[in-house]
# Entry
Amino acid sequence: MQSACAEILAQVNDRILEITINRPGRKNALTMAMYTAMAELLNSAANNSDIRVAVITGAEGIFTSGNDLTDFLGGSAEGEESPVFQFMSALYNFPKPVVAAVNGPAVGIGTTMLLHCDLSFAGHDAMFQMPFVNLGLCPEYGSSYLLPRIAGHAKASELLLLGKKFSAQEAVQIGICNAAVESEQAIARAREAAVELAEKAPAAVRLTKQLLRRATQEKGLEFIQDEGRHFKDRLASEEFKEAATAFMEKRPADFSRFD
# Structure
């Protein structure tokens, strides 16, 4: 199986699809082309009986620093037909187990996508953040629905409203990750879990995943779509333009003139 984008690597071994985000020069920031490639890989693997598990990781000790703001400022990320939403849908609807291995920064969707993975292992060097409000945006990918149910309302409010960074150990305590391991062991643990899953009865694994997700499936999709509409509006807001411009100019954003 090949990726349509050079910055997304794909390989299949022992019935496991491994997807690697490979743009380390930009801290693995995600572009529209990268989202499209990941969506295509997941959709293809969903219907491929030779693939039983997917693993998602990042190259050179970096998971992903989130979205490439240049793409977002260009207005190419809008609507349910956008590459971003297509990736979200592909991962959300993927019928087989997804295992994540996280090292370094996991920012924005780098954290929220873990809410849709079945297992995730974080190296001790992993650093998580959902800085949507800091960028004049709102939560995405169902995080305003799922995170309070995983972490509780108070902790979810802290993470989503303040947008502060948190460690691998805290991600485990919250329930976002399964385990915090030595940094060089994150991918090894993910692969080990993937091999174990690939050896189990495939129909039983898929059904168990379906049953586990049953309680959140319908509401989760509703929230993803609702957040997506608000997120689209926020991308056109003056607050986001100020935050993105400030980020690229390496200065603090100034929201003092906004109501």
Summary: Strands lie at 8-13, 16-21, 53-58, 98-102, 105-107, 119-123, 127-129, 166-167, 179-181.
